[in-house]
Design brief:
The complex is a heterodimer. Chain A is an alpha/beta fold. Chain A has one domain: Nucleotidyltransferase, domain 5 (2-Layer Sandwich). Chain A has three helices and five strands. In chain A, helix 1 packs parallel to helix 2. The radius of gyration of chain A is 13 Å and the shape is globular. Chain B is α/β, with parallel strands linked by helices. Chain B has two domains: about 210 residues, P-loop containing nucleotide triphosphate hydrolases (Rossmann fold, 3-Layer(aba) Sandwich), CATH 3.40.50; about 60 residues, Alpha-Beta Plaits (2-Layer Sandwich). Chain B contains eleven helices and twelve strands. In chain B, a hairpin with a 2-residue loop joins strand 7 and strand 8. The two termini of chain B are about 15 Å apart. The chains are: A alpha/beta, B alpha/beta.
Amino acid sequence: MKIAITTNGSNLEAPVGQRFGRAERFMVIDPATLEYQLVENPGDPAQGAGIQSAERVARLGVSALITGHCGPKAYRVLQAAGIEVYVGAQGSVAEVLEQHRQGRLQPAVGADVEGHWV
Amino acid sequence: MKIAVASGKGGTGKTTVAVSLALAGQQPLQLLDCDVEAPNCRIFLQPTINPPQPVSVPVPVVDQEKCSRCGQCSALCQYHAIAVLETATLVFPELCHSCGGCRRICPEAAISEQEREIGQIFTGRRELVDWVEGRLNIGEAITPPLIRAVKRKARPQGTVIIDCPPGTACSLVAAVSGCDVVVLVTEPTPFGLHDLHLTVEVLRQLQLPLGVVINRSDIGDQRVEHFCARERIPIWLRIAHDRRIAAASARGEGLLAVRPELADDFRRLLENLTKLGGKEANR
């Protein structure tokens, strides 16, 4: 079971990226071994960044996504892809993974921000 | 003869000028309100208003059984209005620009189209002025199809005045395309000049004849005047700042309600624009 986590950094100490649609990259990590790979996420500057990001995550074969905030269009894609979405994550990737392991992150039931949230 | 009234900067007096031009005319004419995100000619014109007609655009519908999830539609769509997943293909109609590309490229013929309403067209009349208004539905982002639908109401003969949206993007281009001349309403302020400059650049790309009306011409500085002189852009009218005009606008009355003597200026401008056919205007 792999998890995707948004980040603008490149290691376990990097903070979780707060904007799902505009995340610079995804860390695809196996929580059991902490082995990870980084997947770049170049988005369209004009529109549809959240949809593109969600399509990309859906192709990564992950069962869950952990991020700061997720808008409505991206959430719709992630939901259709059957990916569990955790929002409101704060701190480093390692800290967030630990919170997830302890079951302290609640799965989102919808987008937690409007589209184009700043 | 299609006369577009545009500005670049918002709030310079486009609608004031468009409505005053329309009301100053002595022949029947049309006033098309193409500022579809904030159409307000009706406030100052106070026309009779007929029941609206809906305007819709075609958007894709995916037959999930036929769809093989090949992803060609998603790859084609520059607006990311289709997302293809292993389990489903999702459409985001509000992002769709109705190009029809997804339907054409689909190898399984799994995509059909359905109409989606984006706005309404109102029509009405006051005296010699035949009024048409496009009104975008709340939450919609794409204006050009509605603006084009309003412009299809223009009669081929006679004078048509088009109140354009502010800015220099797709909606302005949709509104001014096919017009014979563009009246740019500006004000002698740094913002007025900045946006006038941008709009002139766009209109020159479109090779449209243009001239300027300076509203509140006695405030600010001389830089708009200097810009027009340098660029050989004719200044067709100057309207001095008058608190009574601002107060009338706030009450929903037009400029001519408080300054009826300016009707002569607008009538002369309208006649000159009609005569010009854009010939002597700056391109």
